[in-house]
UniProtKB/TrEMBL annotation:
CDD domains: CE4_NodB_like_5s_6s. Pfam families: Polysacc_deac_1. It comes from Reinekea forsetii. PROSITE patterns: NODB (PS51677). GO terms for molecular function: hydrolase activity, acting on carbon-nitrogen (but not peptide) bonds; hydrolase activity, acting on glycosyl bonds. It comes from the Bacteria. The keyword Ribonucleoprotein does not apply. Residues 93-331 form the NodB homology domain. The lineage of its organism: Bacteria, Pseudomonadati, Pseudomonadota, Gammaproteobacteria, Oceanospirillales. InterPro entries: Glyco_hydro/deAcase_b/a-brl (IPR011330), NODB_dom (IPR002509), Polysacch_Deacetylase (IPR051398). One of its GO terms (biological process) is xylan catabolic process. This is Putative xylanase/chitin deacetylase, CE4 family.
């Protein structure tokens, strides 16, 4: 980055952190929903293999909670929504913490930080993958590139990834490749990976997601609510059969409720993808749902099944000023 661009970016960050909506006295109730995925130390081998936009270190996450406590009333997402639905008084500026996917590191690193600061959160779990050796396809691709696996050359769909094994490993380049591969369906991607024998090309590094005991421990803390992130993490794009939607939206909810012994009221769209049919089905089964669309939720225009969120990752929020700039609502 040139000195001029660096200076301009610093000035914009300062302006956003100082003058954004998080610093204003509100007349109407607003809700900030923060979106996290993984909480990993930089020394952890998993950190270097993850997309930059997916991970925050424990130290940065703890700083986020300290800063958020200065600005907001930190709330349970379900509780805030219930109060809004009932017409009860709400804080002018509320903030809810959410985690997508149900990663094992949420149990290993995030839970103790939530407990230290007594902050409620919602974890959106992939019902059919809990306690299984399942890996998300972006992580498989990232690990194959890092291992410079020649197997990537064996399938035309993976040609973009294969080109990267000739270059030094770069998380940013891998993230760009993963974004391009999202043009294909999950079925197509997993079929291609199975065709090249990905599992034999990689050494197993243990489970990626929590098991049922760990998920139950989160709820037993009294701070964490579990929401549904579908059954298989399939992106809910157009054209999915009704039976598939039922499996991903309704059956997955029932499985979580049965195994955890508690109601499941919240839903999260994988990759933020949904259409009208998906939205209507989600409305039938859930109190609310979160998207990946950037923004701040306002009570007077609240869409409970299309809640806006603010994505957090280390590179964009590793100082109080950068974190506050993310909260501003500016892009």
């Amino acid at each position: 980055m040139s000195p001029i661009k660096y200076c301009a970016k610093g000035m914009l960050t300062f302006a956003a952190s100082s003058f954004g909506e998080h610093n204003r006295a509100n007349q109407e109730a607003k809700l900030w929903v923060l979106m996290y995925h993984r909480i990993l130390p930089k020394a952890d081998a998993r950190y270097d293999l993850e997309e930059p936009g997916m991970v925050v270190t424990p130290e940065v996450f703890a700083m986020h909670l300290r800063e958020a406590k200065k600005l907001f009333e930190l709330v349970s997402l379900s509780d805030w929504l219930a109060r809004a639905s009932a017409g009860q008084p709400l804080p002018a500026k509320a903030c809810a913490i959410t985690f997508d996917d149900g990663w094992l590191d949420n149990y290993e690193f995030a839970l103790s930080i939530l407990q230290r600061y007594r902050v409620p959160a919602t974890v959106f779990a992939v019902a059919d993958k809990i306690g299984t050796p399942f890996r998300f396809w972006p992580n498989i691709v990232s690990e194959l590139i890092a291992a410079k696996s020649p197997a990537l050359r064996s399938h035309p769909l993976l040609a973009q990834a294969a080109r990267l094994i000739e270059l030094p490993y770069s998380r940013e380049r891998v993230a760009q490749c993963i974004g391009q591969l999202k043009a294909y369906t999950e079925d197509a991607l997993f079929n291609a990976l199975e065709a090249i024998g990905w599992s034999s090309a990689l050494a197993s590094n243990g489970p990626a997601l929590m098991d049922w005991t760990q998920l139950a421990a989160l709820t037993a803390s009294g701070l964490v609510e579990i929401g549904c992130h579908t059954g298989s993490h399939r992106r809910l794009n157009k054209g999915l059969a009704a039976a598939v939607l039922d499996q991903e939206i309704a059956t997955s909810k029932d499985r979580l409720a049965r195994r955890l012994g508690q109601p499941i009221n919240l839903f999260c769209y994988p990759n933020g993808d949904f259409d009208t049919a998906v939205l209507e089905r989600v409305k039938e089964h859930y109190q609310a749902a979160v998207t990946t669309q950037h923004g701040i939720n306002r009570l007077d225009s609240l869409q409970p099944h299309q809640l806006l969120r603010i994505a957090l990752h280390n590179d964009a929020s590793d100082s109080p000023r950068k974190f506050r700039a993310r909260l501003s609502g500016w892009r």
